Amino acid sequence: MFYGWRLVAGLFVILAFSSGLGFYNHAVLIQSLAATGRYTIEVASSAVSVFFVVSGIAGLGLAPLLDRFDVRWIIVPGALLAAFGLWCIGSIRETWELYGVYALFGLGFSASGLLPATTLISRWFVIQRARALSIASTGLSVGGMLITPISAYWVGDLGLPRAASFQALLYLLGVVPVTLWLLRSFPADLGLMPDGAAWQETPAAQDGVHFAVAVKDPFFVWFNLSYI
Known about the structure:
With 228 residues, this protein is mostly helical. It contains 10 helices and no strands. About 3% of the residues have low confidence.
C-alpha cells in the first residue's frame, strides 16, 4: 500500500482531535466561561473571534515555514501551544487574559490543523488528491461528533478547571504521537513519488497554478466569497 494513505489516516486522526477540541469546542467553552460569572456570553464570544482572526493571519506566516521545515516541527509545537491555551482557559480570571489565551490557542490550532494537513496532501497526491482530501477532512466532522461531546461531559462532570486540563492532555495525545509516527513532509523523504507512481509516471503538468493566476480566476473569487 502506498505510504501516502497511511499519512491520510494520520491526518484524519489529527483533524478529528484538533477540530473536536478546537473548532467545535467553542460552544462548550463559551457556556462554561459564562457560567463562571467572570465573563458574559458576549465577551466569551468575542474571544472566539480573536481565535479565528489569529488563526487565519497565522496561516500566512505558516505557509513559508511549511516549505522550509519538516512539517512535524510545525505541527508538534502548534499542538503544544494549542494545548497550553486550552489548559489556561481553565484558570484565567481577567478579560485580557481571556483574549491572550485565545490568541495563543488560535495560533496553535492553525499550526496543528487544516493548513499543514492540506499542504501535505497536495504534496503526496496529484491524481488521487480529491479522494485523499475528502478522507482526511472527514476527520473534522468526526471530531465534532465524537470528541466534542467528551469535552462537554468533562466540563459538566468535573468543572471547567479540571476539564480544561483533560482537554489539553487529549489534544496532545491525539495529535503529537500520530504526527511523529506517520507524517513525513514529502514523498521523496521515503524515496517515493506522489500517488506512488514511478518516477517517470508523475504528471508534472498537474503540480498547481501560480497564486497570481489563481486569484484572477472567477471560480476562485466566487468560491472564497461564498465563505464570507
